[in-house]
What does this fold into?
Amino acid sequence: MVQTEPIIRLQNVHKTFNSHPVLRGVNLDVLPHKTTVIIGRSGCGKSVLLRHVVGLLKPDRGKVYFRKYEISALPERILARVRSRIGFLFQGGALFDSMTVRQNVCFPLEEHAIGTRAERKNRCHTVLSLVGLDGLQNQYPEELSGGQKKRVALARAIAMGPEVILYDEPTTGLDPIRADLINELIIKLQRALGTTALVVTHDMASARKVGDRIVMLDEGQLIVDTTPEGLNDIRDETVMRFIHGQASAAELAELQTEQLAANGMEPNA
Ligand SMILES: Nc1ncnc2c1ncn2[C@@H]1O[C@H](COP(=O)(O)OP(=O)(O)OP(=O)(O)O)[C@@H](O)[C@H]1O
Ligand SMILES: [Mg+2]
It folds into this structure.
């Protein structure tokens, strides 16, 4: 059997913030041309993990590789070059409010001095068409809906023709139809460009739809490694509750709603 080399490798990655351990020995090999989805509860460290992949955060312990490069040990100058091969769709979109849609999408191309002005304009036009927003080139982010902003951010993430695209919560906050259009875009990009995708989400419908492989981060470690179909066979209670969106009895008890009434906060009849 031919062994495929991982394109991204996390090796025993540990990260603690203010004595709160967030990543506690994460091992993950991301295979090329596949979509790997990381699921997990809010605050479990999914965005922190993605930031390690592009070297925006350094592990306290362990190593992060992109191909042959040890991301976690590269000097900033080389890191910037390697980063240009990785597209990052930030959780909040992270568009520049003072720039138009076209300027936002062109920004990485200008930063890395890719092509002539005309070629950059052309590239921008192509990626905006791909995400269905070609008509909005001259709008500013504040004039766009949440879904449109996500698509602009996606166009910017793919403008450089990256080998890998990291998606941080690409569908969160969108209506189900818009969310599904983003899912379709992720699939389309992966098929059209042959890119490798690493998607972070707690949207299970999205995870099942776009993922070739699904891993779950819980208490700083990856506790599940399966396929969308494989999710149906999982019997672990923590994982099942997450997949089906059911809080545990202990978590429900923490709501302490009876205290509202005890403190005179019940609504007036
Ligand atoms: N730069 C930072 N400094 C200190 N603490 C941080 C930093 N970044 C993240 N954290 C903490 O790390 C934990 C994990 O954060 P992270 O943003 O990775 O969660 P997440 O899994 O992406 O959650 P969500 O699904 O809500 O986006 C949180 O407790 C957060 O407060
Ligand atoms: Mg996050």
